[in-house]
Design goal:
The complex is a heterodimer of chains A (about 290) and B (about 575). Chain A is an all-alpha fold and about 290 residues long. Chain A contains 15 helices and no strands. Chain A has 2 domains: about 1-60, no CATH class; about 65-290, MetI-like (MetI-like fold), CATH 1.10.3720.10. Chain B is an alpha/beta fold and about 575 residues long. Chain B has 3 domains: about 60-190 and about 370-400, D-Maltodextrin-Binding Protein, domain 2; about 195-365 and about 490-565, Periplasmic binding protein-like II (D-Maltodextrin-Binding Protein, domain 2), CATH 3.40.190; about 410-445, no CATH class. The chains are: A mainly alpha (about 290), B alpha/beta (about 575). Chain A: This is Carbohydrate ABC transporter membrane protein 2, CUT1 family.
């Protein structure tokens, strides 16, 4: 309130604003550049003349992309994986974090130890692969993409810390009124935890959306590939085609820079669009978690 | 109390994890060991069985395509972003029709093909046929017995065996042999040696100023010098591929190796029948001096060795800011396409120079093997194993198979006019530059599945006539000319190291070659002085183990030479 009335602009404000504007430009520039590339005609792209607005404006690239069924199939897959994955991840995270937030849970320390352990050590690629594909038989199913990374230790810890901040008295009152544990969790705790739920959803959604490695190793059929794999192949794969060992020309052919940038723009769009809506919870959720932690 | 508890937990955790790890390893190892055991038995038995089978061949069931019973083979497929995999390619239908074989594919994006291949082969989950594997990449799978020694089974591969004989590839084939005298990868075979990389020049600029077309590296220097006088604020030569292609093909005519072909620093001196460390030779110094002179006098862009290809091609060569660049027979087509956009049609003329003459004359690499196919041990369990090998032989090595994977089906995608293949109307092949301007035409590669790197190895592969049919007039002339005027450098014989020796050699050569590469660039760009710093460079190479590497290589080579015979 005090600050709102202050009319004089201090030196600090000026410097701060200038720096912040610079930061904004730096963060925005890649997006602008990509968007500009995707809408420019190739001539200017080849000559490297694009900066942050399109030259020789055309939507031709997007038209080509629209016709590419591979892209849309993988796009659909990504949406399915993200939605289902986020719901599952969120549910599992809450169900794990909530009991852990209770001080009277027996063996809490041991459990926490086990969970923390996974933050620093992992079984390695080959055992993990064998587990998922041979023992669990999840290869080539949606589950291989979602389940192995469903719970992020970090997210569990943040959520747990948030739950610890909810006053015990509330829950006790509910218990006295005859509510069981699940009732308390779903009717009392969760409605109070919207910020953390929103934050975690965003974390998980972005994580799954961008994840290419899991799908890459567990999926063998093209109709299951998410859009991240599609993108990786047209960017890194095209690069590789040109650099292939010893410069052997068997992978001739190139993807146009405009196509690459158009597909990047289209696949980054949904996540960017979700962000503003979740943002208000976002800061709150993270801060609460960290402060109390 | 608390601390103790934590300690206890930590201990329990570590012990249990270690336990899990060990049991995990044990579990993993046992089946593998028993697997190799079976496999070992299998491989020792089979070859003895097979030849007798081969002897009987004329008698009973010989496998002919199409197979009587339909068969299904599994295969790893490298999905190229320029021609994404499609289920409805007629390629698959034709394979099925002609062989009664259905390929069950595991699709892997090209971007990370090696990683997934390695993962699948090491976990034993790989399909039976694994193509797109370069000789050298297979060695890690050999000790565990994950892939089969294909050399034991080439009697099942009539086309492959015949081509080895007819095209005199025995020497080439030796280069992929392992310590046991066997080889584990079926390489693509070339009938003739091909130099695919060379320099491209802006012929129109050369002609405009009456600069003679260079025949040797010295000519090139003079030409660049004139260009620099005419265009003082440009670098007439700005290279791509970070100079690796350039050093690769230039080093041949200087009698050394370099760039992509730098290898582990070991060079085979045929006259002495021994190996030496080439980066410290006078020949290598001479090559560095030559390029250093180009950079020093402002004839060559010092960024040549660091810049991205896009910048070298799109922003410099294609916009007329440089006049000389490395290229290959495909890239030159795509550069022309780009220059039509940037400079406009008719405003430029780009040609590929034949390999230039150096101190050792005009030399091209005589290596005639391409990337290849490995067969995993899973295939041995397939009751149709023999058919599988025959199928591989048919699809990748027979003339019929190669025609199918290159041109498709007669009457559907192409027709033959005399000796020439001609695409039917309404079909284009963008990658070959055929009918490119027909917007509505279907693409031979994208829409029909032909010209696929997985099946054709490389465009230089296979029967000479088929290979030439797949080339532009220009590329064909280039290759023929190069073969006429150049001498071939035959491949060096392999040094048959076992696992431990290979590891030691790698340990030495990795840091050694990193250093060599770094110094090579410094010498060329002038950050290090060739005259002053050369001795220090030689000393440092020796300190990093170049002598040991040479000695080791020669010893092993002399000891194991006989295995190859």
């Amino acid at each position: 309130m005090k600050f709102a009335n202050k009319k004089r602009i201090s030196v600090f404000d000026v410097i701060n604003i200038v720096i912040m504007i610079c930061v904004v430009i730096i963060t925005l520039y890649p997006f602008l550049y990509l968007t500009a590339l995707s809408m420019s005609s190739e001539k200017y792209v080849y000559a490297g003349e694009i900066t942050f607005y399109p030259k020789g404006f055309t939507l031709g690239t997007y038209r080509v992309l629209l016709k590419d069924s591979d892209f849309w199939i993988s796009y659909r897959n990504t949406i399915i994986y993200t939605v289902v994955g986020t719901v599952i991840s969120l549910a599992l995270t809450v169900l794990l974090a909530y009991p852990l937030s209770k001080k009277n849970l027996k063996g809490r320390g041991v459990l926490l130890g086990f969970i923390l352990f996974t933050m620093f050590f992992s079984g390695g690629l080959i055992p993990t692969y064998l587990l998922v594909s041979r023992m669990l038989q999840m290869r080539n199913t949606i589950w291989a993409v979602i389940i192995p990374g469903a719970i992020s230790t970090y997210n569990v810890l943040v959520t747990k810390t948030f739950f610890e901040g909810i006053p015990d008295e509330l829950e006790e009152a509910a218990a006295i009124d005859g509510m069981n544990t699940y009732g308390i969790l779903f009717r009392i705790v969760l409605p109070l935890s919207k910020p953390i739920l929103a934050t975690m959803s965003l974390f998980y959604a972005v994580g799954i959306w961008n994840n290419w490695f899991g799908p890459f190793i567990y999926l063998d059929m093209k109709e299951l590939f998410p859009v991240s794999l599609y993108l990786r192949n047209i960017i890194a794969g095209a690069q590789k085609a040109r650099e292939i060992v010893g410069g052997d020309v068997e992978g001739f052919g190139d993807i146009e820079a405009t196509i690459k940038s158009a597909s990047m723009v289209v696949s980054a769009l949904p996540i960017i669009m979700i962000y503003p809506f979740v943002q208000k919870y976002f800061v709150k959720g993270i801060m609460i978690g960290s402060l109390k932690g | 109390m608390n601390k103790k508890a934590i300690l206890l937990i930590a201990c329990i955790l570590i012990v249990s994890m270690l336990g899990v790890m060990f049991t995990g390893c044990g579990k993993k190892e046992t089946p593998e060991k028993s697997g190799t055991g079976e496999n070992g038995d299998g491989t020792t038995e089979q070859p003895t069985e097979e030849p007798s089978d081969g002897g009987k061949k004329s008698g009973e069931e010989e496998i002919t395509f199409p197979l009587k019973e339909p068969a299904k083979f599994t295969m790893l497929y490298r999905d190229h972003p320029s021609y994404p995999y499609r289920e409805d390619w007629i390629l698959w239908d034709e394979i099925k029709k002609r062989t009664n074989v259905e390929l069950e594919l595991t699709i892997v994006p090209m971007s990370d093909y090696e990683q997934k291949r390695n993962l699948l082969i090491s976990t034993g989950e790989a399909p039976e046929i694994v193509p797109s594997t370069y000789p050298g990449q297979e060695v890690n799978f050999i000790p565990a017995g994950a892939i089969i020694p294909v050399s034991d089974y080439i009697h099942l591969m009539p086309n492959f065996s015949r081509q080895i004989e007819e095209w005199n590839l025995q020497e080439d084939l030796k280069t992929i042999k392992q310590k046991d005298g066997k080889f584990y990868v079926l390489p693509g075979l070339r009938e003739i040696a091909v130099a695919d990389y060379s320099l491209a020049i802006r012929t129109d600029i050369f002609e405009k100023h009456n600069i003679p077309i260079p025949e040797s590296w010295e000519d090139l220097y003079n030409a660049l010098k004139k260009l620099k006088e005419l265009y003082p604020d440009t670098y007439p030569f700005s290279d791509r591929w970070k100079g690796d292609a350039l050093l690769n093909f230039a080093s041949l005519s200087f009698g050394v190796q370099g760039g992509w072909g730098a290898g582990n620093g070991i060079y085979y001196y045929r006259d002495r029948d021994e190996f030496g460390f080439y980066p410290i030779t006078d020949e290598y110094k001479e090559m560095l001096k030559y390029f250093n002179r180009l950079v020093k006098e402002g004839l060559m862009d010092p960024e040549s060795f660091t810049q991205e290809d896009e910048i070298a091609v799109n922003q410099k060569f294609a916009t007329g800011k440089s006049f000389v660049i490395s290229t290959n027979t495909q890239e030159i087509i795509s550069m022309r396409q780009k220059m039509k956009e940037t400079l406009g049609e008719g405003n430029f003329k780009v040609d590929m120079l034949p390999p230039l003459e150096g101190p050792k004359g005009r030399v091209i690499s005589g290596m005639r093997l391409d990337n290849g196919i490995v067969i995993t041990k899973k295939a041995l369990d397939n009751p149709n194993f023999e058919a599988l090998m025959k199928f591989v032989d048919w699809l990748w090595y027979s003339e019929e198979g190669q025609t199918l994977t290159r041109w498709g089906v007669e009457g559907v995608t192409y027709k033959k006019v005399g000796d020439k293949f001609e695409l039917l109307p309404g079909i284009k092949a963008g990658y070959l530059g055929i009918n490119v301007d027909d917007e509505n035409a279907k693409d031979l590669r994208n829409d029909f599945g032909m010209g696929n790197g997985v099946f054709i190895f490389s465009i230089y592969n296979g029967h000479k006539e088929l290979m030439y049919s797949y080339m532009t007039e220009e590329a064909r002339n280039f290759i023929q000319k190069a073969n006429e005027i150049c001498t071939l450098r035959p491949p060096a014989p392999p040094v048959l190291m076992d696992e431990v020796e290979r590891e030691e050699a790698n340990m030495i050569s990795q840091s050694l070659m990193d250093y060599v590469k770094q110094m090579t660039l410094q010498f060329i760009t002038g950050q290090a002085d060739i005259e002053k710093d050369w001795d220090a460079f030689v000393q440092e190479c020796k300190a990093k183990g170049s002598d040991r590497l040479v000695q080791m290589t020669n010893e092993i080579y002399q000891e194991t030479k006989d295995i190859l015979e």
